[in-house]
Amino acid sequence: MPYNSGQHWILAVTDPWDDSVMYFNPLGNEPGDDFKDLITTALNDWKVLVGSGMRQRRNWQTLIDTVRCPIHEGYVECGYFVLAYMREITFTVDGLAVLMTKDFYTDADMSLVRHKWATFVILFIQY
């Protein structure tokens, strides 16, 4: 799930069945308290919805693993990086492993993400 804390985009990949949350941050920072609170609330609510037969965790915050991923130095393109992470995970065989071994995205990688996003938005606006 992409998440914006107000001025910065990150990506969280959650697997509530496996009690895991992977945190991808284009700036490389650790998750903030607002994100931890959101994940804790969401996953605890999910446990209630699926039933009491699930293992209960007292503190989901300890399950959030910050994952190595391509980072950027600026503050402008974090949204595009999150889109690139989602694209990598979704359309690449073993996308998580590939994403976690990349040090950076090339200009061509980011241009492709921008082009795909712009094409989607244009098609969405037209219909």
From TrEMBL:
It comes from the Eukaryota. GO terms for molecular function: cysteine-type peptidase activity. The keyword Protease applies. The keyword Hydrolase applies. Keywords: Hydrolase, Protease. GO terms for biological process: proteolysis. Pfam families: Peptidase_C48. Residues 1-118 form the Ubiquitin-like protease family profile domain. Gene3D superfamilies: Adenoviral Proteinase, Chain A. InterPro entries: Papain-like_cys_pep_sf, Peptidase_C48_C. Belongs to the peptidase C48 family. This is Ubiquitin-like protease family profile domain-containing protein. The lineage of its organism: Eukaryota, Viridiplantae, Streptophyta, Embryophyta, Tracheophyta.
